[in-house]
Each structure stands twice: as structure tokens, then as C-alpha cells.
Amino acid sequence: MNTQWFVLHTLAGQEQKVRDTINRRIKTDEMEEYIREVLLPMEKVVEVRGGKKTITNRKLHPGYVYVDMALLDEGKRPMEKPWYFIKDIQGVIGFVGGERPMTVTDDEIATIKVQISDSEDTERPKVNFDIGETVKINDGPFLNFTGVIEELEPDKGKLKVTVDIFGRKTPVELEYWQVEKS
Fold it and tell me: Do 159 and 151 form a contact (C-beta atoms < 8 A)?
């Protein structure tokens, strides 16, 4: 059966529950021939809590879950079995597009999957910084110093901060998680 990607609109904060429920019920409701993959795009985010670096996952598209499934028949009308299977999942509001669900192209899904795999390799800061902004250093040898951001390297997760040490302005290279907005 031909499958296409569709987007499900979910209740806020219910995305993982919807994904897990669909995956769990595929076998019990005999939906293997209709549903191929369920995708909840997430990225790793680094933040500092209580002076410690913690890595959490953040949803790239809050309120949405992607499903690769056979939903439409030859006349582009929704088939009953997969339609009601999805509509009966707790936390699902419906398909994006309503009664005429919109498909997502393979290129768009490929782009989302690249974003996901990129976030596996790099840790994104939870907070975004700007050049000229004053920050407080919360880790390392310059703990509790304040400085001004001179350069940003978001792809590496680093920034250059000018710190006043013994009356001299000194550039220091730090990682995003080592500073906080002051």
C-alpha cells in the first residue's frame, strides 16, 4: 500500500503520548499495513540548572506529530480504518487540513530528519545570545565574572566574551552553557 506523510495536530504537551500510543496500538489494532512510521521531531537543548549542565529534549514542532501512513484511497478520500484509528487516539485533535488531510513532501520530511540528526551531534543552547549583550559567567575559572559578548559561534556552541580582569579587558572563549544573561 502506498504511504504518504501526514501531520497530526495534538493537544499541547501530548505529542509523546500520542506517538507512543500509536506505536503501541499498531500491532494490537492490526494497522501494520497502514502505518509505516511515526515521527516526533526533537532536538537536544543544553541549559544550566543549579550550576550543572543538563541536556533536555525540545520539540521542534510543538503540537504536531508526523505519520507515514496509507490514509487516502485512489479517489483521494480518507479510508475509514486508518482515519478512525488515528481519530480515536487520545490527545489527537485531528489531521492538519481537517477533512481533507494535507500531505507533507518527502523533501520536507528529509529536512526535518536532517535537523534531528544534526541536533544529535551538537547541543543547542536553550537561551539565544546577541553580540554586545552582558552575561554572567557561571562555570570555569572566570566564575561570577561579567562580560560583554564580542563574537558568537552558534554552530560550535561557543562565544567570545570580553571580561575585565585586573583592569584589563581580556577576551575569553566560553561555551553557551557556561554563561547566563545578567
Answer: yes
Domain coverage including residue 68: 4-125
3-class state of residue 164 by DSSP = strand
Map residue 126 onto helix, strand or coil: coil
Side chain identity at residue 4, one-letter code: Q
Look at phi and psi of residue 97 and say left if phi exceeds 0, alpha if psi is from -120 to 50, else beta.
left
What mean pLDDT value characterizes the chain?
88
What pLDDT band is residue 43 in, cutting at 50, 70 and 90? Answer: confident
Question: Measured between alpha carbons, how far is 143 from 79 in angstroms, rounded to an integer?
Answer: 61
Question: Considering the entire predicted model, what is its pTM?
Answer: 0.71
Q: Tell me: do 50 and 103 sit in the same domain.
A: yes
- Residues 98 and 35 both lie in one domain: yes
Region 114-118 average pLDDT: 83
Mean pLDDT, rounded, for 113-133 = 76
Structural domain count, the chain: 2
- If asked whether residues 31 and 115 sit together in one domain, one would say yes
CATH (domain of 177): 2.30.30.30
What letter would DSSP give residue 46? E
Burial of 130 by CB count in 10 Å (0-12 exposed, 13-18 middle, 19+ buried)? exposed
Euclidean distance between CA atoms 171 and 164, whole angstroms:
9
